[in-house]
Write a structure and sequence with these properties.
The chain is α/β, with parallel strands linked by helices. It has helices spanning 34-45, 60-69, 85-93, 114-127, 167-173, 185-191, 211-228, and strands at 5-10, 28-29, 32-33, 50-55, 77-80, 101-106, 129-135, 140-143, 148-151, 157-166, 198-200. It has one domain: Spore Coat Polysaccharide Biosynthesis Protein SpsA, Chain A (Alpha-Beta Complex), CATH 3.90.550. The mean pLDDT is 94.
Length: 229
């Protein structure tokens, strides 16, 4: 069965941890805004994908200006976000009608590859969910107020996006009452009773959160450009 493919890209950050006045999704990354690079990645995967971009209403004009400046004109649906990621994702999902698959992705993960996006859709078509994740590289310890304890890192994964689901499954899950402990879409689906399927993400699929992340992203892009040259 061939499913319609959607992407809900959520970009509501204010840049507090990256310590800039400009929201992190609009910061330049090798001459192009972070968010534009993220959106372009999904169109490199497929020109047929239906993209819903969730932004604060105040940022709509900023996005339109970015598109004009970079001659980027796609049929993207702009949707007003909420006060939290949960509310913003729910708002984005409301723009999808009928069946299909939807990849929910952080607007500040601009280095996501076409291969990862494609894998998420293929696996979600079979397993109903497909969540990108990578293994821990370093040792970890569990701590409380009085002691620390070594933990087997092989049992843990760092969760990324895209997190891809059957549309009706994740829309139904987001009907629950918001809980601050539900920090991503997989946790919402799991709370709703669904088993979450993980697949191998990429260490390059970083989230731009701190100034160091931006430096690393620039280095990775420069490295790719040298390889292509």
């Amino acid at each position: 069965m061939e499913y319609k493919e959607y992407a809900v890209i959520v970009a509501g950050g204010k840049g507090t941890r990256i310590k800039t006045k400009v929201p992190k999704q609009f910061l330049p990354l090798n001459g192009k805004p972070v968010l534009l690079r993220t959106v372009e990645a999904f169109y490199r995967y497929s020109e047929k994908i239906r993209v819903i971009l969730v932004l604060p209403a105040d940022d709509f004009e900023t996005w339109k200006s970015i598109c004009d400046k970079n001659d980027f004109h796609k049929n993207i649906i702009l949707q007003k976000g909420g006060e939290s990621r949960f509310q913003s994702v729910k708002s984005g999902l409301s723009k999808i009608e009928g069946e299909g698959l939807v990849a929910i992705h952080d607007g500040v993960r601009p280095l996501v590859s076409e291969d990862i996006i494609g894998a998420s859709f293929r696996l979600a078509a079979v397993h109903q969910s497909a969540v990108a994740a990578v293994r821990l590289k370093e040792s970890i310890r569990m701590t409380d107020q009085h002691s620390t304890k070594s933990v087997d890192r092989s049992r843990f994964r760092v969760i990324q996006t895209p997190q891809t689901f059957h549309v009706q499954l994740i829309k139904k899950a987001y009907e629950m009452i918001e809980d601050p402990s539900l920090t991503d879409d997989a946790s919402v689906a799991e709370r709703s009773g669904h088993i979450i399927s993980l697949f191998e993400g990429s260490y390059e699929n970083i989230k731009i959160t701190t100034p160091e992340d931006l430096i690393l992203a620039e280095a990775l892009l420069n490295s790719k450009d040298k390889i292509q040259d």
